[in-house]
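Sequence in, structure out.
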Amino acid sequence: MKTLVIAEKPDMGRTIAAVIEPKAKNNRSYLEGDRYIITWAIGHLLGLAEPDAYDAKYKRWKFGDLPILPVHFKIVPNPRTKDQLGTIGEVAKRCDAIVNACDAGREGQYIFALIQQQLKLNQPVKRLWISDLTAESIAKGFEGLYDSSEFENLTLAARARSEADWLIGMNASRAFTTKHNTLLSVGRVQTPVLALIYDRQKEIESFDSLTYYEIKAEFEQTGRKYIGTWQGDRLTDGEKAAALADKVRGQKGSISEYDVKDTKEYPYKLYDLTLLQREANAKYGYSAKKTLDLAQALYEKHKVISYPRTSSNYVTEQNIDGMHKALHMLKSTSYKELADGANPGLVHVNNKSVCNPTRVEDHHAILPTLRRGANLSKEEQHIYDLVIRRFISHFYPPAEYKQHTVLTVVEGETFKTNVKELLSLGWKICQPGDDNAKSSGRGKKKEEEEEQEELVSEPFQIDKGQPVICLDAEAKEKATQPPKAYTEGTLLRAMESAGKQLENEELRDAMKDAGLGTPATRAATIERLKNVGYITMQGKRITVTQKGRTAIELIRHAGVELLTSPEMTGQWERRLYQISKGEAASEKFMDNVKRFAISIIDKVRTQPKADASLFEAGEEEKSTSKSKGSRQSSAGANSRAKATPAKSTSKPGVLTPLAPCPREGCGGQLIEGRKGFGCTHYKQGCGFVIWKEYSGKKITESMLKTLLDKGQTQLLTFKDPEGDFKARIILTNRTTGGLELNKVDD
């Protein structure tokens, strides 16, 4: 009898076979040698069954049939890959032992567990657990195979994750879909992620920009010129700001304070998958899924990097020798110059910014292997380059600077100067352009940062005891900026910390096991939100569609806000992590999920049905969503049930709902007509309307939203025969839409 080795994908299976059975016979769907038969899954060969597998009545979506709570979950083969499942079953009959060689992670464990369950494989199982697919790692891995019992808790966590997603996805999606007669996809992870995007977009839309003035002055002392920023309360009066600039211009001043300190900047952490995805999005605009696919190809096909689906930024003591060997390998590649300048002595077991075993769970940080990167596509090379440069940077010393802080006083006014003087690039030689990021970046926020801190490479020195002259001063008009829309990179960061905006790296690390999803699943979650028509991309920016907005609002109004809570769902992910470590019971977790599913049904049952107009796409959405609409599936990673999406229309006058009608108890939505913004419930008697022109001013969509949210517009200038005047437009009647002017005295 032989030993059956089951890999997760064909390439992995063939790579393993080349090491343990180099003369194996190729039988297309498996390889057979003297001791081993090596075959493979093709991703997920099995999945959780649809509801109609439990009862035929579930083929039709009816609210009255909910909740659906299987006592025991059924699994079914993927029809596209059932032949491969049959092959595994056949060759298993000739084997008396099995090696689980699927990906060393939660999903890989689950793929094998379902195969074992479906085929009733009773042979003893060993586990291959390796982080890269080099011949050395495979050979070493087979020399030290683990007993499968060591991974039972990981299997329990994987099953709990899949079944929890099914329970929430199936029940919540069917409940909201049948209640509102529009296909609405709801999920345990995807819904709170959508809520993050929705909330950020609402913040941006409701943001009221404030004009203010910043005063910059140019000083000179014995030939040395420098710029200072006025220190004081924010100035919103342009005349006062100009007067202050005039006051100091051309006047003598003195240095009231001058502080110089040496600072060091150490290399950025080694990559985990989420960090790699974030940086690839920022630098190349790659989606999270694209970066994952490219990294997976570098791992599986080219075997030039270690296992990419890791959540760790550190390595263990066992990896240090391999890192030194990889550095040596790079000396014979296009990275020779950087590798030659590196200092191997800087990477050692006591360097806690690199080697920290307590921070390594299943897999260490992404590292290069000993195989040279060759025949890579342009996009694969981009990802490989990121990994290599980050890796080499840890063999370089910190970048060194002198931080100069100067307070200059002129005519009683204080100006602050921050100068960062570069002494030594150190590791930043591996990241060209890093120090120039601020000056090359676009956008007001980056410009403001640049003005606050000047980076110089030549020596900077000021004599505190000598006077200075203010050569010039200028008051610049500025405007406060709204929060930035999410990109895939910044969204991944928010998912990693369950939506908490944590700047502190240590706190973010502590939240990793309570994030939304896992490094391996976050890309798929973002793609799903695109596919179901909840979000769309505008360049790098993610925006919520009308359908996505309505979905979140309906869920929250139904009283199941927990379903949209990133922090709550992050705690669920933490519990799954605890299950994988044997620190929590999967049965209790699943009981809580079932109770939550029941509560969702109970809450949705009493919710009023939403107007169909709430789901209609705006004109700008229709062109991108038309091809997707017919392909939407119900929520839940395993759902394949077909349903008809809401009808789209291109009839004139059927436009995007702009905001809920403010008339109490109405429930309609405001839409734009030819002459005004009226309510969709006008046929039911709602008379709310705001006309597009009032007192000579055109009411725009943004002004409409400000009126509804704040009850008044910003200060506006109106024309009058007796002289222009300033006033705000006030919404005085939230039943009819009546407006008035509120004049402001000069």
